[in-house]
Amino acid sequence: MNKLKSSLFVLLVLTFVSAKADEGMWLLQLMKEQHSIEMMKKQGLLLEADDVYNPNGISLKDAVGIFGGGCTGEIISSEGLILTNHHCGYGAIQQHSSVEHDYLTNGFWAKNRKEEIPTPGLAFTFIERIENITDIVNAQVKEGKISEIYSYTTPYLTKLADELLAKSDLKGKPGISAQALPFYAGNKFYLLYKKKYSDVRMVAAPPSSIGKFGGETDNWMWPRHTGDFSMFRIYADANGEPAEYSEKNVPLKCKKHLSISLKGIEEGDYAMIMGFPGSTSRYLTASEVKERMEALNAPRIRVREARQNVLRAEMAKSDKVRIQYASKFASSSNYWKNSIGMNKAIVDNKVIETKLAQEKRFQEFAKTKGNQDYMNVVKEIDDAVAKTSAINYQWTCFREVFIGGIEFGTPYLLCDKLKDALKNKDKAKADSVITDMKKVFAEIHNKDYDHEVDRKVAKALLPLYAEMVPAEQRPSIYSVIEKEFKGDYNKFIDACYDNSIFANQTNFDNFVKSPSIKALDKDLMTKFVRSKYEMNSKLSDERNTVTEPLTLLHKTYVRGLGEMKEPTPSYPDANFTIRLTYGNVKSYNPKDGVHYNYFTTMKGIMEKEDPNNSEFVVPAKLKELYNNKDFGRYALKNGEMPVCFLSTNDITGGNSGSPVINGKGQLIGAAFDGNWESLSGDINFDNDLQRCICVDIRYILFIVDKLGNSKHLIDEMTIVE
Predict the structure, then answer these.
(1) Signal peptide: which range, if any (predicted)?
(2) Which of 2, 361, 520, 664 is least crowded, fewest Cβ atoms below 10 Å from its Cβ?
C-alpha cells in the first residue's frame, strides 16, 4: 500500500520540464495539486485557478455540461441558452423534421420563447461536485470486502455511488445523481455528482448546407468551412430546479454563462477547451495498437461501408427516407471515416514504432527500479492480446451487423411469455402480454424506420458477415438459412420481412385476433432474434473472460509509465468526464511543401460550392450576404468573414460542442472536429500534427444574426467587442 501511495504521488507531481502543454486532457480537480495553472499562465491564461475550477464557488466549470448523451455544450446567456455543435443537435433537429417541416434542409429559428420546441429525451447535465474516493475503494479491497478486479465493475461502482449519495447533503435534491469511475487505469477513483435538466428545447439550427457543409467529404479534414453549431435552451421549474416538460417551466437562470469575444484570434493566441472527451487509449502497447487496427477498425470499416452504401442510395431516392435516416447515417459515417483515418495515421505517423520505443525505455526503467511487476507487464499484456484479438474481431463483426446494422427484430422474450400463457390457457396473462407486444410493434415501426430500407440493409449485411466470420462462429440462424433456404439469404430475409408477425400491421392484427403457439414457433424473425441474443451472450462471456486479465495489467503499466515520466505529469485516459485542455491557435504543415493556415473564411465556401453535390450546396441567402459583404460587426479587419480556425488543443469524441476559450475566459469558438493527419491521436498524441478544428464564434453569431434574423438571441448574450 505504501508503494502504491508513493507511486500515485509521483504520478500526480507536476513540473513541466519536458511535457508539451498542448497534450493532455487534464482533470480539473487536480489543477492546483499539479500546479498546471502556472503553465497555463505561461501559455497566455490571464485567470486564476479558482476562476477555471472552484470546488467551493462558481467558475467556468459551471457554464459547461453534457449535451444529450455524448456531446458537450456551454451556457451562453443568463437564461439557459446552450451552444453546441450542429452534429450534436442533429438527432433533435431530425426528430422534429418532416417533409412538411424540413428543419434539416431549411434550418430552424425560434422567433420567441413560445416557438422553442420541446425535445423529449434530450437533457443537459452539469457537474455539481467531484470527490476523490480512492481511499474508500482501496480500503474495501484491502479489507477483503471486494476483489481488486471487482472494483472496476459497473455494479460495484454504481452501488458505491448510490451509497455515498445517500450520505451526502445532495441526497434527494431534484435531478441529482452520482457516478463513480476509475481513473489512471484504476489507480485512482472519483465520484461525480451530476445535476440533470430534462426540459431542453430547440432554439436555433442553421440549414444542413451550413451546419454540415462539406458532409462526408470534408469530415475530419482541413481546410474546413462548416458552420457546425446549434442552440437549445434549458427550462426549469419556478425554483430553478430540474423538472419534466411543462408549459409552466421557465428558462433556467444560470449561475454562470460564458461571455463572448468579438476581438478575434491571431496565431499563437492562448486557447483552452473544457468538455467531456469520450474515450482515448493513450497507454496501449504496440500489440494492442495492432489489435485496434485489425480487430476493431478493419471490420467496422467494411460493415459500415456496406450499410452506408444502401442507406445513401435509398436516401437519394426519397425525402422521407432522407429525413428518417439522416441521423443514423451521420452517426455511422462519422466513425467509419474515423476508423479509416486512424488506421492510415497509425502507419503514417509510425505509432507502433513509437510504442515499441516507449516499451524499450520502460523495460530499461523497470530494470533500474528492480521492479519485477514492471519488467513483466508488457509481455503479459502481449500474451493476453494474443488471446483477445480473435474474440474482439468476432465481437466487432457481430455488433456492427446485428446490433448496429440490421434494425428489424421481434420481442422473443414476450413471445415466450405469450406461449406460456397460451399453453396454460391464461387469457388474462395472454391479453397483458399482447398489450406489451402492441407497444413493441409501435416502437419497431417508428417514424424513423423504413421496413424496405432495412430489408435491403439485411440483404447486404447477412452475406457479408458470412464472408467475414467462419461458419462455426456464426449465430445459429445461419444453419436455418443453410438447411431451410439452401443458403439463399434473399429468400430467408424476404420470408422474415414479409411473413413475420411483426413485419407489418396486417400480419400483427391477424395474429392478435387469433394468437397461437404454432404461429409463434414458425416466426422466422423471432428465431433470428433469439439466435442473435444467444450469440451476443456467448461472445460477451468469452470476451469478458479473456480481457479481464488486461484490466489489472494496465493498472500496473499505467502506474509504471507515470513513474518513468516523472517529473513530467500524467493524465488519465478520457472516460467522458469533464476535462481541460490548453494550447494555442496554430497552423500546421501536413506534409512536405504544404502549409495549412490557422483559419478559413467564407471565400472558401464559395470556392467549394457545387450545386450538383448536396454536400457543397450554398444557400442563396448566404451567397447574397457574401456578395454584399453584409457581415456586420463580425468581419475581420480586412472585411472578410472568418469561418473556422485551428488550435493545438487535445480533444476527442465527446468534446464536440466544447467551448474554445481565450486567456480572459471568453468564448471564441466551438470545437467540432479533429484533423485527418492525426486521427491516431486517440492512441498517440502528435505535437506537430494534432489539431482541433473549431467554428469561429463570429461566424456563429453572423449566421444567427444575418441569416437567421434572430437578433433577439444575440441581444441576450454577453458580447465583448
Answers:
(1) 1-21
(2) 2
Cβ pair 639, 70 in contact under 8 A: no
Nearest one of 184, 188, 177, 187 to 132, comparing CA atoms: 188
Q: Are 370 and 563 in contact (CB under 8 A)?
A: no
Residue 68 resides in a domain: no
| 175 and 296 both lie in a single domain | no
The dihedral region occupied by 209, where left means phi > 0, alpha psi between -120 and 50, and beta the remainder, is: alpha
> Rounded to two decimals, what is the model's pTM?
0.93
Mean pLDDT (the chain) is: 95
Evaluate whether residue 390 is within a structural domain: yes
228 catalytic residue (yes or no) = yes
Distance CA 468, CA 400 (A): 12
Domain total for the chain? 2
Structural domain containing residue 390: 283-568
Answer yes or no: do 474 and 370 share one domain.
yes
- Residue 182: asked if its preceding bond is cis (omega within 30°), the reply is no
Identify how many contiguous H helices and E strands the chain contains and give both numbers.
26, 23
Q: Annotated catalytic, 656?
A: yes
**Whole-angstrom Cα distance, residue 403 to residue 461?**
12
pLDDT digits over 272-326, tens only? 999 999 999 999 999 999 999 999 999 999 999 999 999 999 999 999 999 999 9
Residues 182 and 292 reside in one and the same domain: no
Sequence-ordered strand ranges (E) for 318-440? none
Tell me the pairing of strands 599-601 and 667-674. unpaired
The pLDDT confidence band at residue 12, using thresholds 50, 70 and 90, is very low
Write down the pLDDT at residue 15: 33
Nearest to 258, CA basis, from 712, 668, 580:
668
Residue 21 scores a pLDDT above 80? no
Q: Is residue 408 part of a domain?
A: yes
Residue 345 parent element (H or E): helix 319-348
Among candidate residues 531, 546, 568, the one where a domain is terminated = 568
Burial class (CB in 10 A: 0-12, 13-18, 19+), 50: middle
Residues 316 and 178 grouped into a single domain: no
346 and 463, same domain (yes or no): yes
Rounded to 5°, the CA angle 46-52-57 comes to: 125
Are 500 and 367 part of one and the same domain? Answer: yes
> pLDDT digit string (tens) for 140-198?
999 999 999 999 999 999 999 999 999 999 999 999 999 999 999 999 999 999 999 99
Find residue 585's DSSP bridge partners. 647
Secondary structure (3-state) at 52: helix
**Looking at the structure, do residues 325 and 188 belong to the same domain, yes or no?**
no
The torsion region of residue 370 among left (phi > 0), alpha (psi -120 to 50) and beta comes to left
- Average pLDDT of span 252-275: 97
- Does pLDDT of 5 surpass 70? no
Domain final position from 174, 195, 216: 195
Confidence of residue 35 (pLDDT cuts 50, 70, 90): low
Residue 100: which residues within 8 A CB-CB, separation 6 or more?
Answer: none
Domain assignment present for 25 = no
3-state SS, one letter per residue, for 426-457: CHHHHHHHHHHHHHHHHHHCCCCCCHHHHHHH
Q: Which residue in 199, 218, 228, 682 is the catalytic one? A: 228
Residues 59, 656, 678, 710: which is the catalytic one? 656
Q: Is 639 exposed, middle or buried (0-12, 13-18, 19+ CB in 10 A)?
A: exposed
Residue 350 exposure: Cα atoms within 13 Å on the Cβ side: 5
Do residues 204 and 192 touch, judged by C-beta distance below 8 A? no
pLDDT digits (tens, 9 = 90+) for 322-374: 999 999 999 999 999 999 999 999 999 999 999 999 999 999 999 999 999 99
